[in-house]
Amino acid sequence: MLVDEIRSGAAWVARQARHVVVETDRVAAYAAAFPPPAQLPGLDAEAHVVDGPAELRAAFFLTLDAINFGSGWFPTIRKRDGRSGYFTIALGLRDRFRGDGAWSAEQLRTIDAATVATTLGQDPEHELVALFARALNDLGAHVADEHGGRFLGVVEAARGSAPALVELLAAWDCFDDRSSYGSREIPLFKRAQVATSDLALAGAARLDRLDRLTLFADNLIPHVLRLDGVLRFDPALVARIEAGELIEHDAPEEVEMRAGAIHVAELICRARPDLTPQLVDGTLWTKGGGARYKAVPRPRSRSTAY
Q: Quick one: what percent of the chain has pLDDT higher than 90?
């Protein structure tokens, strides 16, 4: 099962990491301070499509999560007032869905950078916009050719299993997320898991075994865990990050950050059986929007993984 391969790969990286170390002796106290599950965040109803027909909700989250990447470019894009890069993209897409409805699978198959740029309020010549268009082309082709043009068809193909939906999406180029570390390929698949979680939270999919998803490894959660003292970064790496240097995608230190965060979530859930990695992720990601975490530069890499 892919989600188990993600867990085991992350643990393997964490055991031999040189640049990013899990402070295992601090995890129990950190886990104890987590809020109970009833207080954990859900979807932002202002920025997402969380009502209307299930097909519309499925289309929205599959479309959004196909382009839910680019944090390394976010300092260079046009942002909405008071909004992060992610929410700028989500709100642009939400406005499209509210005004004109979803793009069909066939429209996505041929969508171009100019259309994407207009929708998201971005420069059509920006490198990230072209990557978004390419990802949407791939999404549209899969939905059209394999699921009869129905976004709910993707959900139905998983037969109610969250891990199965992750595996289905992970086979598409637009959700690909694997890194090499030493002699081993490490599957991470942040966005395939985020899409699965989002579809369930939006009520577009009834999925069991959501607790088998891992933390959705990006650049923000390792940053939160570093500032909270649960991940220890090598001083040289900290200096590079705080100087604004981009960390190369697939570099050992970048893989260690993401894998370390996944492994920390697993340790938290062992200490707190009432939590799941999905809930840990939501708490830490939301926490990362706080002033304390925004005041310190976070690690950034340019990739389509996150």
A: 98
